Amino acid sequence: MLIVFPVGATIYLVAITMDWLNSIFADLFLGWINIEIPGLGIITGFLFIALIGYVFNRAFTKPIVHIFERIITKMPLVSMIYTSLKDLTEAFVGERKKFNQPAKVTFGDTGVIRFGFITQDSLEQFDLADEVAVYCPHSYNFSGNLYVVPKECVTPVKIDSTDFMRFIVSGGVTGGFKKI
C-alpha cells in the first residue's frame, strides 16, 4: 500500500489531467483532421501556451498587456481575483518571487514552531515597523495562513526553498534537503 497508493494516485491524476487537456485541444483539429491522434491536444496546448508567452514577452505587446491589466483592475470582483492570482503566481515564479526566504516562527513561550516563508521584511505601511509577514502553507493542501509576527520570533532557515515547501506541504514526511 505504501508503494502502490502514491504511484497509482500520481499516475491516475496525470492520466486524467492529460486526457482532459487532450479533449480540450484535440477539438481544435476535428474540422481538418478526421483521425484521432493521441497526444495531439496536449502538444497543441503546450504550443499554444508557449506561443502566448512568447508573444506577450515581446516589447511591442507590453503596452497592450498594460492596457488589458488596467481595464481588469478597474472591475470590482474581477480585479480582486485577477490581482490575487497574478500575485500568487509571481510569488512562485518570475522576477518578484516571494517564497524564497524559508523561516521558522516561534509562538511565545509555548515552544510551538511553525514553518513558513518571509514574504515582507517591512510592514511599516501598516505602522508595524518591528513585524514581518510570514506565509505558512498548510500540509496536504494548497492554502495557508499569513502571520504577522515580531521579527525576533522569526529565524531564517538556510535550506533550499523548494525543498522546504515540499517538506511543509507533505506534512513533514519528506527529506533530502539541500542546505544553503
Question: What does this molecule look like?
Answer:
It is a single chain. The protein has 180 residues and is of the alpha+beta class. It has 2 domains: 4-92; 102-169, no CATH class. Helices cover 43% and strands 18% of the residues. It contains 5 helices and 5 strands. It has helices at residues 4-26, 40-57, 62-72, 76-92, 161-169, and strands at 102-107, 112-120, 131-137, 144-150, 154-156. It has a 5-stranded antiparallel sheet with strand order 4-3-2-1-5, covered by helices on one side. Helix 1 crosses helix 2 (40-57).
Query: How many helix segments?
Result: 5
Strand order across the largest sheet: 4-3-2-1-5
User: Can you summarize the main beta sheet?
Assistant: 5 strands, antiparallel
**Total tally of structural domains:** 2
Helix content: 40-55%
Strand content: 15-25%
Calculate the mean pLDDT score and round it: 75
Radius of gyration: 22 Å
State the end-to-end distance: 35 Å
Order of helices and strands: HHHHEEEEEH
The tally of beta strands, per DSSP, is: 5
Bulk shape: flat
* Helix-strand makeup class: alpha+beta
| Poorly predicted residue ranges | none
